[in-house]
Design goal:
14 helices
Length: 298
C-alpha cells in the first residue's frame, strides 16, 4: 500500500505544522529584517554550528550546491522578498503549495512513478481548495507577489527532486551541508539590494524575540523540517508524501489569523476543508492501517 504508516504520518504532520506557523513568524521578523539579510542569517545558523558535528554526506558537491541554491535562494530568498509587502502570509502559505503538483509531475515525468486514479481525484479536491482562495484575492496581494511565490514553489519542487536523487545520504547532514551553498548568493543579494549599512543595523539591533524568530527559521523550519521531509521522500513515493504539504496553508492561515489578525472568512474555511479532504483521500485510503517493514502497525 502507499499510505504512510502512523509513525511517518505523525512526522509529516509535525513538519507541516512547523512550516505552516512559520509564515506568521516570517512576517513578524520582516518588520525588522530586510528579506535577503534575514534569509542569509537563516542559512548561516542552519550550517553553523551543526556542520562541526555532522560529517559531510558522501554525495557529489554539485548535489549539495544545487539543493542549497534552490532551497536557500530560489525558495526562501524569493519567498521572503515576496512576503515583504507583496503577499499576505496566509495566502503565501497556500500558493507555495503548488510545489505539491510540480513535485508529483516531475516524479511522474522524470522518475517513472505512477499516479493512480485515487491520487488524481485527491489532488483535484485539493486543487479546488486552492482555487477557492485564489478566486478571493484582495488588495494585500499583488500579481508580482503571486508570481514570486510560484517561483519559490518551483524551486522547492526541484529541490525535492535533487534530494531524492541521493536517498542514501543522511537527510539532516544533507540539509546542513547544502546550506553552505545558500549563504554566498543570498549574501550577495543582500549587499546589492539592501546595502551593508542596513544589514549591520538589523543585526546590531536584534532583540531576544528576533533571535527566537531567526532560530525558529534555522533549527525548526530548516534543520528539522527539511531533514525529516527529505527522509520521508527517500522512503515513499513523492505522490504520497508531497500532498501532506497541503496542510501547510491550514496551519498558515490559522497562525496568521491568531497572531497577525489576518481575516479568516468562511470561504477560507471551505477551502481548507477541501484541502483536508484531498489529503485524506490520497494518504488514508479506506482509513485502514498497514504495517511497516519492521512489523510496526501503521
Amino acid at each position: 500500500m502507499n499510505a504512510l504508516s502512523w509513525r511517518h504520518a505523525l512526522l509529516a504532520l509535525a513538519v507541516v505544522a512547523v512550516w505552516g506557523t512559520n509564515f506568521a513568524v516570517i512576517k513578524s521578523a520582516l518588520a525588522h529584517f530586510p528579506p535577503f539579510t534575514f534569509a542569509t542569517l537563516r542559512f548561516v545558523f542552519a550550517f553553523l554550528p551543526a556542520a562541526f558535528f555532522l560529517k559531510r554526506p558522501q554525495v557529489p558537491w554539485r548535489n549539495l550546491a544545487a539543493y542549497g541554491v534552490l532551497i536557500g535562494v530560489g525558495q526562501f530568498g524569493v519567498l521572503y522578498f515576496a512576503m515583504n509587502g507583496r503577499i499576505s502570509p496566509g495566502l503565501a502559505s497556500l500558493v507555495v503549495q503548488s510545489q505539491v503538483f510540480i513535485t508529483i509531475g516531475l516524479s511522474v515525468w522524470l522518475g517513472g512513478e505512477r499516479l493512480v486514479l485515487r491520487q488524481g481525484l485527491a489532488l483535484g479536491l485539493a486543487a479546488a481548495g486552492l482555487g477557492v482562495i485564489l478566486l478571493n484575492l484582495d488588495a494585500t496581494t499583488t500579481s508580482l507577489g503571486l508570481a514570486l511565490v510560484l517561483v519559490a514553489a518551483l524551486s522547492w519542487a526541484l529541490g525535492n527532486m535533487v534530494q531524492r536523487a541521493t536517498p542514501e545520504a543522511p537527510s539532516l547532514a544533507f540539509v546542513v551541508w547544502a546550506s553552505l551553498f545558500s549563504i554566498p548568493p543570498l549574501l550577495i543579494l543582500a549587499v546589492v539590494f539592501e546595502g551593508a549599512p542596513a544589514m549591520i543595523s538589523a543585526v546590531a539591533t536584534m532583540t531576544p524575540t528576533l533571535w527566537a524568530e531567526l532560530l525558529y527559521q534555522s533549527f525548526g523550519n530548516t534543520l528539522f523540517g527539511y531533514a525529516v521531509w527529505g527522509w520521508l521522500l527517500a522512503r515513499h513515493p513523492a505522490s504520497v508524501v508531497s500532498p501532506w504539504a497541503l496542510l501547510v496553508p491550514v496551519f498558515g492561515l490559522t497562525a496568521s489569523a491568531l497572531a497577525l489578525g489576518e481575516p479568516l472568512p468562511p470561504w477560507k474555511l471551505a477551502a481548507a476543508a477541501l484541502v483536508i479532504a484531498g489529503l485524506a483521500m490520497n494518504s488514508l485510503p479506506g482509513l485502514g492501517l498497514r504495517r511497516d517493514r519492521d512489523g510496526a502497525v501503521g
